[in-house]
Amino acid sequence: MFVKSLGTDGAELRPLEPWQAEEFFAHMERGREFIGQHIGFADAAKDLESARTLLQGYADKAATDTGRIYGIWLDDKLVGGVLFRVMDVPQGRAEVGCWLEPSATGRGLVTRAAKVLIGWAIRERGMHRVEWLVSSRNAPSIAVARRLGMTRDGVLRSYHLHRGVRQDLEVWSVLAPEWES
User: Fold this and answer.
1) CA 153 to CA 175: how far, in whole Å?
2) What is the rounded average pLDDT for all residues in the chain?
3) Which residue from 156, 57, 159, 140 is spatially nearest to 98, judged by alpha carbons?
4) C-alpha closest to that of 127 among 96, 82, 169
5) Distance CA 100, CA 149 (A)
6) What is the 3-state secondary structure (H, E, C) of 81-136?
7) What is the pLDDT of residues 115-166, one digit of tens each?
8) No. of H helices and E strands in the chain?
9) Residue 7 DSSP label
10) What is the chain's Cα-based Rg?
11) Where does the record place the N-acetyltransferase domain (predicted)?
12) How far apart are CA 105 and CA 128, in angstroms?
């Protein structure tokens, strides 16, 4: 297993694996309502078994090179994460996502972690396009897309059903030549 420092504040990026389901579930419990405002992880990891199943799904994606999940630890406490929700290596396209519990917001953790993932996807895996899909209501996540130098490609109106409410979904992206410049 690797550990990647995200700066001098004790923040680290590490793979998040099924054997860490208890820690992941405890993290979801701490941030369930905050995280669940915009993403389905909070609802998908409703108990220890479903948390393990979610992480196993990403382990399976890693094994087939179609996705990956990483945790963000701050002072050895899991506080959030970033992931490749989708990786389409033959097409050179990946979708990055993120989440944080409330205690970890405002520190630039997601921006720093997403930079690591995007750089790896472009430089090591040859991705040409990295996408960021976000609810139009999720201003902090949109701000991260901007900080990452992404371009807003458009809005998919009433595209996503989350907790019984239709949401507009913004599509942001960065292309390999833009990232490298």
Assistant:
1) 12
2) 95
3) 140
4) 96
5) 20
6) EEEEEEEECCCCEEEEEEEECHHHCCCCHHHHHHHHHHHHHHHCCCCCEEEEEEEC
7) 999 999 999 999 999 999 999 999 999 999 999 999 999 999 999 888 889 9
8) 6, 8
9) S
10) 15
11) 11-178
12) 30
Average of per-residue pLDDT across 100-128: 96
CB-count exposure of residue 121 (10 Å: 0-12, 13-18, 19+): buried
Q: What is the mean pLDDT of residues 49-58?
A: 98
pLDDT higher than threshold 70 for residue 67? yes
| pLDDT attached to residue 132 | 98
Q: What is the average pLDDT across 52-72?
A: 98
Dig out the tokens for 94 from the structure. Answer: 């990946």
Q: By three-state DSSP, how is residue 35 classified?
A: helix
DSSP alpha helix (H) spans, 7-95? 21-36, 41-44, 48-63
Name the helix (H) or strand (E) containing 113: helix 109-123
- Hey, how many other C-beta atoms are within 10 angstroms of the C-beta on 107? 18
- Residue position matching structure tokens 């793979």: 15
